[in-house]
Amino acid sequence: MCNLHELLSEHVTLDVECLDRVYVNGYVPTLQTGGSLVRFLQHRGWTIPSPAVLGRITKGFVDQVKDFAEVHDIPVVKFEPGVRKDDVAASYRAEFGDREGVVLIGVAQEKASAFKGTKKRQEGPVGFQYSRQSVYVNHYYFYIHDSDFGPAFIKVCTYAPYAVKVCLNGHEWAKQQLRAAGVPFEALDNGFATCEDPSLLQDLCDQLGPQHIQAFFDKWRRRLPWPLDEVDERADYYHRLSIWQVEVSRTQVFDDPVRGREFFETVIRENLDAGRPDRVQLLFDRKIIKTTPGQFRTRVIDEAVHPSLHLSYKKCHVKQYFKEGCALRTETTINDPRDFGIKKALRNLPFLQQIGRQVNRRLLDVQRLSHDCSLSGESVERVARPTDTQRSTRARHAPGRPTGHGPSGGPRPVLASDQRLPPP
Of 185, 355, 403, 411, which is most buried by a Cβ count within 10 Å? Predict the structure, then answer.
């Protein structure tokens, strides 16, 4: 069996580093406190900021969604608890034939931090005050097929302050760009198995940045039903994007899947200590002390017959597994940019991608060092088999000549010729 260096240098047909899933939050900075909500309702023309007004705004938004679905003939599905939403959406995506549009509108009741109003105890006119509380309210999932990003979704809460979540995939974005450029490729789930122009593919993956995500969001918030209108936006009530979760992956496709699978299982056995604090400190280039939060451990999880290696640093998670039976997938998931001393603003996405790529590379380097300590089976075979000299004769022991001593004190063979062994 090949060691890691030989496998990755001689048997990888495609090596791609790319953003994978990207989740971003949308929030309205001027609508986060009770006082700011009162000002918003007054901006809407309500002298008395009653909770009943919030109910009217929610009902108006719900009516917009219903009208939008009817006009564009979009199916509306209520998600039952425990059902995987992406699986439901996948069946509708399979039947969607347009280049771009809304595939499905899903409705789910989920927890949200929303405003609750109470009357003020005061003399004179009736007044209200608001506080944030956890409530279960309806959310709309707009499953979209975009000409630039392919499959994506935007989730909108129906209650103030109208929180938004956006889910995109960097591999799907790269696929759309290759299709537009007419470059043939073979997909590997949310990745690539083959590509006619690997250099162009990597260049595209390197280009994806905050400006593309912002452009996607700006386009669809104007096309979709939205709780805030243009008048609100001009009054500084608009959604700003921040990073919620980023997955940075490296996919290495092997020419021989069986060999790659054997190697991966061997690497797992040799790296069961990868989650120790001293090893994690090297991978993430961050100092770890006793008060550093998180569980420092290595986990090997078996899903059916597919093992995967897991380790973590604070809220960051690294996973390595054998993807679709033909590729080594190494991916770093960053759940909180503050673990690396930066804020959640979308503009920091390139820096987070750089961190994720470095972690993936360091993990492979650590595995390379540990696995390269021993010769591969092919190298051992080259050393063990008889060697031909320049005269096409086999190297043999010279009888009657001193042999020296081996490490155990016994005789050490001496070659009859000055022929060197082939390099391992």
Answer: 355
